């Protein structure tokens, strides 16, 4: 069966139940998305605790854990949605970018299952999943929009004209925003993964106390740089710990030290938010668009959300966020992207057999290369 007919429901009506499988890094995400009824069920297993003692993701451990989780989570998701395996019309899996071994787990399970069920499978670009994740919220944004994609591995501004029509407007020249959050959190002794912990600490801090640099704020382009900010925090922490004030606060006990850390966290967050807001507004001005979509793990940050909403509203625009649980990696965004890709090519795709059992993953993959996803559809519909 082709991807086109998987979404035809056999009745000429575009209808499709898509199983989404996300295994690009340290989260196993599974979801069932129905093209008419929306998201039916989803499950997520986070490996955070598994990697915490190493201070970062250990790729081999990630792959092994995905192997154990994918099928039980899939069955549990089917149960939650009151669906059976045979109801699935299409399987969407994250093909890249990400950790090669982790991607291979999702790809091989997706393709094996698709083969067994006689249905198509489609590889999805992880960042496309993030870009489209705001479509899971209500109201959902219409195309075109500017997307601010801020995750652990990426900080990008994209013009999204339609499915598959993505133009890179700006990118980070060094660390991604999430990476800066994680490294700064580590400096503050907050462990891994640090972004959410730093954000929580910052809630009680004074973001005006330390004036940290706003890298590339006035660079006249839409690029970012965050590694200098992390270095500035490292120096600040060292100076503060060495200073008399700090010694005095140590004498007063943990409470004063906690205030210092909260103020550093809040000042760091304020610096990052100011740059992301300024560049996002500039991207809207440059493109003449008024809709901004925020995606990726850092998009869960409350201070960033509040600042972005205020700044974009001031210029008469609107900001759209995915539901909080779909800011970080998840299966729902992959299932949704699969459904949208499939519906888009419904009339173009050709029927084909299941003779081609090869599949690939792309640990490194430029989103703009996905284009019309011609890579996927002229090939046999079972892509594995
Ligand atoms: O999109 P994501 O789940 O994974 C990647 O594709 O990278 O993003 C994970 C990143 C991590 O760096 C994490 O620290 C950061 O998002 N993050 C946050 C928050 N929640 C997650 N950063 C700041 N504030 C948050 N509330
Ligand atoms: Zn991600």
State mean pLDDT (0 to 100 scale). Answer: 88
- What can be said about the biggest beta sheet? 5 strands, mixed
**Which structural class matches the secondary elements?**
alpha/beta
Number of structural units classed as domains: 2
The value of Rg in angstroms is 22 Å
CATH-wise, what's the superfamily of the largest domain? ATPase, nucleotide binding domain
Helix coverage percent: 40-55%
Calculate the terminal CA-CA distance, rounded to whole Å. Answer: 13 Å
Q: What's the multimeric state?
A: single chain
**Overall shape:** globular
Going by CATH, the architecture of the largest domain would be: 2-Layer Sandwich
Helix count? 12
CATH fold group of the largest domain: Nucleotidyltransferase, domain 5
**Bound molecule kinds, no repeats:** 5'-O-[(R)-(carboxyoxy)(hydroxy)phosphoryl]adenosine, zinc ion
Uncertain runs? 347-355, 373-384
Q: Tell me, what is the CATH class of the largest domain? A: Alpha Beta
Q: How many E strands? A: 10
